[in-house]
Each structure stands twice: as C-alpha cells, then as structure tokens.
C-alpha cells in the first residue's frame, strides 16, 4: 500500500470518527422516604443540609429528592431500602424489636446527657464493634447514631414516687425502653414516634419515653403536660441514615467517595452540636 493511500485512509478515519471527551459520570436522582416533620430539627437542620452537601461535593451529579409522604411504614424503612422501594431513608432499628439486638447496647439507660459526646461515641462504637459483624449489610449505612436521651412524658398526673407510674401505658421506642417501663410496673406500648400524637390525643396511651426535642418537634407539648427528667436518660435510640444497595450502586465510585467524606463521623459530630442546642 502506498504511503499516500495510507495517509488518505487515516485522514478519512479521523474525519469520520466522533469527537468525544473524557467519560462523564451519569447524573443520579435518589428518592428519600421522608417521615419526619419538615420542621423537625433532625430533618431541617441536619438531613436537608446533608442532601445539599451531597449535591455540592458531587458537583450536582447526585441529588436527593424527598417523596411526598413516607414510602411503606415508618417501622419498615429498613425493608423499604432492602427492596429498593426508596433510595435513602432514616431507619430506626428499634422499631422492629428483636431484629437487630446488637444495637441495644447503645440504647441502655443512663448513658449520658451530652449529645456532643454520646453521638460521636455511638458512631465509633458502631464502626468498631458492630459493622464488622455484618450488621445492616443489606443496605449502605452512612451515619449510625443515637439522639438525645429520652425521659418520661405524661398526659397528666404528677409523679412523686415510682409507684405513681404503675399501670400506666407508656409508648416505647425499642426493647431497652420496654424493659425499663416494665421495671416501673408500667405497660410498654411499642409504636413509632409518628403515631404518638394520635395515641396520646385519644387517650390510648398515658405517656411515653420521649426525648425533649422530639416532644417539641412532633408538637406534643400541649398533649404531654408532665415531663419527668432522669439524669442520663431512661434510654437512647439508635438511628441510621442509609442508602439502598441499588441506589448506591448507581453512583460512580468517585462520587461515592465524596459522599462518604461528608457523612459518617463528620456528619454525626455536627449532629451532636446541633442536638446540644435544641
């Protein structure tokens, strides 16, 4: 083949080849199953800004959009993620009693009043001792944390002795709370926070084990008229911000790494500071 013919072939190939730049990561929109009130501090001051931070660090390639209402049930958010019905959710493992017993060690009474300490410690404990067991392996947890300690809220009735609680029906968020309620000779009623207002308003429960910020965030202050503070808290509750495997796998490895940088311990530490002010 002559040199002139070969040059002509190469030139023709170059002209006909499409001009392409470096491969770009695809944009991903993820659905967040929202069940917290929009004004609740965890939602408004932590989760919503976290979603904005995710969009920022991925240069807009990953965005999270809230659904108009919760997908599935509040108690079933773990399975909502496992089944791919939503991509992101706030999961409370204690809402499914007995399913995740290893988390109960973080939910025992009297573990402290300062979320600036307890929240980062709870995340470190999860990473060091719980994650290696394969706990939550069906989904992608990006922040596992406890909230403010919970105390005893009552619709009515002054408490001057433990015997004043005997027989009262108290909402319980998880197993450790139920055990504490039974030790007080009261009756545990296991329900997610989203159902407490209706239960209290109708008189189906006499009160509950509820953190102070949650009492205000779910507009229960007018219904729960007595609040009994216990140093260190009656219990705490493990929460988790997580992605579904399916949703996470749609994100490029580079953007996954960027999201992890603004999640985990940095996010939980910021939560502790916000909770301490709430």
Automatic annotation (TrEMBL):
Keyword annotations from UniProtKB, A to Z: Periplasm, Signal
Predominant cellular place of this UniProt entry's protein: periplasm
UniProt-listed GO biological process terms: transmembrane transport
Statement: the UniProt record of this protein carries the keyword Membrane: no
Pfam families noted in UniProt: DctP
Subcellular localization: Periplasm
Cellular component, GO annotation: periplasmic space
Gene3D superfamilies: Bacterial extracellular solute-binding protein, family 7
InterPro entries: DctP_fam, TRAP_DctP_sf
Signal sequence extent: 1-25
Name of the protein: TRAP-type C4-dicarboxylate transport system, substrate-binding protein
Species annotation: Paracoccus solventivorans
Record lineage: Bacteria, Pseudomonadati, Pseudomonadota, Alphaproteobacteria, Rhodobacterales
